[in-house]
Design goal:
Layout: H1 3-10, H2 14-23, E1 40-42, E2 49-51, E3 53-56, H3 59-62, H4 69-78, E4 83-85, H5 98-106, E5 114-119, H6 124-137, E6 143-148, H7 157-162, H8 164-174, E7 177-184, H9 188-197, E8 202-206, H10 215-218, H11 220-225, E9 229-233, H12 246-254, E10 259-265, H13 269-282, H14 289-299
Parallel strand pairs: 3-4, 3-10, 4-5, 5-6, 6-7, 7-8, 8-9, 9-10
Antiparallel strand pairs: 1-2
Amino acid sequence: MNDCTRRHFLKTTAAGAAAVSSLGMLNSCAAETKSAGMPMRTLGKTGLQVSQLTFGGGSQFLKNDDGDWEPLLQRAVDMGINTFDNASSYQWRSPMSSEERFGEILAPVRDKVIISTKFDSRDPDEMMREVEQSLTRMKTDYIDILMIHSIEKNEDLDVLEAGVYAKMLQLKEEGVARFIGFSSMNSAEKSKAVIERFDIDACILAMNPTQYGHFAQVTLPEARAKNVGVFAMIVMLNIVGKEATARELMQYALGQDGCASACIGHFGMEILEENANIVRELNGVDMSRTEQQDLETRLAHLAGPHRLVWAQPGYFDGKMV
């Protein structure tokens, strides 16, 4: 898709037209630029060089008050994080959506960062409206990785294929989405089936040593086989400081064969700085399989629905916790 065609997509709505007129043309190719000071990995077949720490726009980021989130997000850019994840539904407590926050800080450096965002609707027309809204909120005319938000156990893959997946392929062909994928923390089996059946570029999977959902055992091998880029999520939430250190949890996630980056939300500058330092220190330092197994054994009891918030029935990615 050329730039004029991509602009036409946005101009189908008044809000989209306003976003285009304010931004001007953007260089999508520059999104692969390496950021200094932060270890990078290749995100599967996308070829994108992503920072091993991805800045997540979900619940923990939304906890930051006005006046705090701006320097936090800017600091992430300055320290070399080049990959930022969001979703159209991330908006609790704050008057601004998380995507709007991203637009405020990331728009001036759009050619240097990689942005992924997710849509919730399984209705293709509603999904297209979500994408239009995301583009406008983030002040951009393309999304690096467009994802289906939260693949569930009851997903009908026939419906997905004929509906939103077909629209995703269309947006990829037009250049509105450079790459496509999905996130999931509720069904490793259905996630594996999506990778087997669809031409997926990247995914975000729940992976931590509690082995919640068994994504590392069930889904990750299929992702590796298809060279699908993988981000780990729910890496630390509610676990760190209880029975494992931040370093152990980060090392475990980044040590999974095929995992390119850990997607983590940050509440406060101190946590961001700590996580960034851990990633720098861990670059190339692997956890042995014995160490992984010891950590899994120690934390396995936390995965049950009676323990951590994200393991409880009805929890959804981005919920305020």
